[in-house]
């Protein structure tokens, strides 16, 4: 819990700081931890020595996140089943807000996982938050030349792997509704009609709840898996509702008002190319309660 005045620079920029940490880590819980650590550093610093509070805070959060990312990558190598980023409830106009732009999509966060920690930090600061090479060099204690080279390499890497999907949210919702209805009735033919030939599905249970331990490929495998999950008798008391998850229309599953999972579909030419389902109970904190950056300030501002 952060206790500070309403005009404190940390509270003023906490949404930006969380957004940067979340994109660097792909984890709501880890991003919240980073902001708590950054607050402790901010509370202890002599404010008269800080000329530009926003730059100081971004630098602090970025470097803390880089340290955590290195250890997080080691943990993910031993993770049970596919590792997916933690989903985050966003706002309907997220694509129009710099801190919650398209780069927060689960598909993009997965691509960012393929970068080195330094490349990821440079890419996020440069391409998402529009920091100059000079500002990034100062934040990361690197030369401008080194930052420029890293930025070029990271941008090329992301461009080569960045998915190109349909952006029409109305179409996404329509296809998701049809997909859910077909799965619930066990109609495999209708499900397969909605899936692209190269469709892939990932589900993250973290070894805590039942989920596919490997990615599933092809309409037949994906359809049988989806029906097997959504048509189970124990799903009878589960409520599925549309929600804005990571800047896109997705499905939020809950039981007795408590989130138990989230589903994101990616479409190309109106057909489902990728499905990502987050089921790990320890990775659902971003789906309920106040926004994470607001939770940090409760009891303070």
UniProtKB/TrEMBL annotation:
This protein's record includes keyword Repeat: no
Source organism, top-level taxon: Bacteria
Any GO MF annotation of the entry: DNA binding
Domain RNA polymerase sigma factor 70 region 4 type: start-end pairs: 107-157
Record's keyword annotation contains NAD: no
The entry's keywords: Sigma factor, Transcription, Transcription regulation
PANTHER family named in the record: ECF RNA POLYMERASE SIGMA FACTOR SIGJ, SIGMA 19 FACTOR
Subunit relationships: Interacts transiently with the RNA polymerase catalytic core formed by RpoA, RpoB, RpoC and RpoZ (2 alpha, 1 beta, 1 beta' and 1 omega subunit) to form the RNA polymerase holoenzyme that can initiate transcription.
Family the entry assigns: Belongs to the sigma-70 factor family. ECF subfamily.
The protein, known as: RNA polymerase sigma-70 factor (ECF subfamily)
Source species of the chain: Kitasatospora kifunensis
